[in-house]
Write a structure and sequence with these properties.
Layout (H helix, E strand, L loop, with lengths): L1 E7 L5 H11 L5 E9 L3 H8 L6 E6 L5 H11 L4 E5 L3 E3 L3 H11 L5 E3 L2 E2 L11 H11 L3 H4 L11 E5 L18 H11 L4 E3 L4 E3 L5 H19 L5 H6 L2 H11 L3 H19 L6 H22 L13
Parallel strand pairs: 1-2, 1-4, 2-3, 6-9, 7-10
Antiparallel strand pairs: 4-8, 5-10, 6-8
Helix pairs in contact: 1-4, 8-12, 10-12, 11-12
Length: 317
Amino acid sequence: MISILIPVNDYDIVALVHSMKNGIGKVQDFCEILIGDDGSSEEFRKLYRSLEGSGVRIVGMEKNVGRAVIRNKLVMEAKGDHILFIDSDTMVCGTAEAFLQKWIEHLPHARVICGGVLYHESPPGDPDKILRWKYGRRKDQLKANERNKNPHAHFTTFNVLIEKSIFSKIRFYEELKQYGHEDTLFGYQLKKAGIDILHIDNGLLHEGLETNRDFLTKTKLSIENLSKLYDIVTDLRTFSETATLLKYYNRLKILRLTRIFAGLFIRYRDRMERHLDSSDPSLKLLRFYKTSMLCTYREIHSRRKGLIPFFKTPENI
């Protein structure tokens, strides 16, 4: 049996849950929907409670505990021997029945199966959300045959089916409190454990586009996390294979250019952010922005490395 897990914080998931409930009624291999309320406001808690019953349960947290903690909690509460993680800001393209049935068809072929991410073909009506849409269309929305060329690097909990027994060995790393690269770390751990990932074309539509400014804020948080993880993983070479940005950084490190890129980031950060927060942002500039930001964080973290440990390092990292 399969449990559907939806972590959420202050987001309207009524249409998504009703769609999934309709699909479950026609695809008997799915047994329940678990809503992981990660410290939402009272307004949204009432909304989620209105969805309870008929195979829908709520796992609630009094305060926001972060993406890793709420996901681990949901896995522990799930009744199914497989779990389907889907993000709260998604919607099915077509029918939920067809979406759910496709997972059943591929279930025998892998212990971890990623369905993919889709975006609207037309740009958002709000130009303040164009950066996230352009990035998603170019970097996230990839066909399965492309993702399967480097499957662990494209792991994401956005829309993924995982055998529950895997979590007896690997869990989401709860020391990562802020947003960013939780999925990169989990993909790395799967690779270290010798667990294959299969990518299929069974995408969900990403509806919750952030504003340009919010996307840049999340980018900063994620790159800060990536730099911290760089110092604690036991197999840096394998970890670098699951994070494209680290490949760029390692090339610059070999060429001894990281300090130069860090200096460029510090000098031109405001100018880059003004362009990225516009109606016509450049993805090439975004890549330079992210790479030079990582160089900056690496300079900061490498100087502190011998003084203060960032995390308690679990054995499975």
